[in-house]
Predict the structure.
Amino acid sequence: MKVKKLTALLMAAMMTISLAACGNSGTPASEPAADTAAPADGETDGNTADADTQAGENGDSYEELLAEIIPEETVTLDVFDQLANYSGEQIGWFGQIMLEKFNVKLNIIPDPDGVYETRMESGNLGDIVIWGNDSDEYMQAVQKGMLFDWNEDEILSDYGPYIEEHMPYALEKNTNLSGGTTYGYGFDVAVDPSARGDIMYTWDLRWDLYKELGYPAIKNLDDMVEVLAQMKEICPKDDNGKTTYGVSLFNDWDGDMVMFVKSTATAYYGYDEFGFGLYDSEEQKYYPCLEKDGPYLTCLKFYNDLYQRGLLDPDSQTQKYDGMVEDYQNGSAFLNVFNFLGSAMYNSDSHAADGKAMYPCPPEEATPIAYGLNVYGGNRIWSIGAKTEYPELCMAILNWLSTPEGRMTAEYGPKDVCWYYDENGKTCFTDLGRAAKLDIKTEMSDGYSGTFEDGNFKMNNQTWALDTENLDSNGDTYNYKKWDSFITEPNSEIEADWRDYTKARTPDEYMGQRPYKLAPGTTYSAGTKSDELLVLWNQVADCIKTNSWKAIYASTDEEFDKIVDEMISKANEYGYDECIAFQENEVKLRAAAEDAVK
């Protein structure tokens, strides 16, 4: 417990004679039983003001409690972040907001190879800790006492009131997962468990070039290769006069498999990444990644076909995330299966004015995955390091990020500078906010320095799901593409052409009209692997990633087949079969969790 908080309690005790009178007068969220039904939409209705006015110990308002822990001198908090694509101090507009609200600077520490092990050995993970998943490494940290108990000194009740009131099921899931102690909660929490999120696997394609080609049929992956080849013929140079390609990749997000390969399988077949393979929630069937003619190897060949045709950026394996972003911003590549890496990067006002844009154009046979919203949250956990000197301050920051204002700010920029609520409670962009969302290189104003991109939220994790209801608004979600104020008449001729062709107003409306596969939100969390299995697992993962990239760059089909055969042989030597046996058991657990919410 921090000195200022302790002092306040002692003063209150003296005034009321009895220390017992200083108990917490806040109203904690109820603790639902494990089999309690998830709340229906609207049952958790509330707003940010609840967190601001909720009383804490000694009857203090939340603002008074917060004022006691804001440091007089600026403090730097280390954020160990397994999801980060950035290293160093959070700069720009979001850095300024952290200084203004909490007088802190955030030092983002990503997790390349060896960093997790080094920090575990040091005994200090950091102040705020963000996990890429809730299985092995997270559970190791729990077992070794590396995370702060959110109920210690009642910091959740006092400094995380919005989280406690509005995310009880996500907290419960973490408590059960962590052996009865609450250390955090998962990302993308939802209000309504019956809703689905936007389909993000939209197969964004350069629509202006597709139109110029006469809208050729794209039935399957082979057809997509042919169309990309035709696009390169009519558009051989990007905005800066550099060579164009069908796709541009990066390897920052590779995990058990090559990210873009497994994600393309998810975009095409609708199967979710699941250990060393992919899982079909509808059929509850598992496809190991090294299965001949299976979804992973089929999509691996798709990228090799692109390479052999000169349609894959040759820097794909060595460039990082930023290099790929620059390629899509400049029109260097024509296709991305993700909307947040395709159209979100390319569709600026300047490109629209030139009649250029990326819009969904999936192959006819594609059935992309759609994720059901999850009141229990996902597997990327927000937590606090056990050795932090500022647990209350860390909790207050996470609490603010979990309010509608915090979620909106992290996504769109400062309130009233980039976005606001109108007189009817509907969410709207300012001119600056709209420009910044459509072109991240937009210069900020109103006292905020740099471009919107400079100040982008570097933690790269979310509290509320983008497509869940914003409880501060009048029925809007956090997804600007669904705001009434944004869905207006087409903003350009090229958008009008896409709408006319697809008979849809928005990309998600179009994707929802097509076949897709739904993966429901559940309480499933991946099982913990033994130390022995982890050793095998890491060797197999390195083998699959290394050889997958080799196969992508194979010059001939014969060379591709040879590399794949060698990959399968080596993976089996490392213990691939044992890993698959573990994952087959996980299939049963996931299927049972899905059955429980049907």
